[in-house]
Amino acid sequence: MKNLSEPTYKNVLRQPLVLGVPFEGLIALTGLVTSIEVLGQGAVYGTYSAGIVAVMGFATLRLFARYSKTGWEESFISRVEQIIQGPIPIPLVLTPSRIDVVAPDTLDEVDLLLLRSTLRERVDALKPGERLTLLGDMTPCGFLLLECSRQEGAVRNNINWNRLTHGHLSKRPRVYSLHQLPVSTDPLWLTSVLRRLPPHFQIAVTLQGEDYSKTKNQIEGSRKRNSQIPGLSNVDSEVTFHEATSVLYGLSRGDESIVTLSLVITSQVGLSLDPQVFVEERQPDLALSSIFGFRKRLHRRHTVRSLTAVDLIPRLLDSRYEENPIFHTLRSIPMGFDPLDSRLEALHWLVVGASGSGKSFFTGLVLKRLLENGRKFSVLFLDHNRSFRRIIRAQDDLYAEPQNLREVQTDLKKVLATLNEPGMMGGIELSDLSLDEKKEALHFTLSQVESFLRSRTSFHPVYVVIDECWNFLRDEPLLVQRAFREFRKLNGAAIAITQSLTDFLQDETGSSVFQNAPVRILLRQGEDLTSYRGQLGLNDVELGKVRLLRQEKGAFSECLIKTPFLSRIARLYPTPEEHELLRTDNLREEIIAEMQIKKEAQ
Question: Is 250 left (phi over 0), alpha (psi -120 to 50) or beta?
Answer without folding.
Answer: alpha
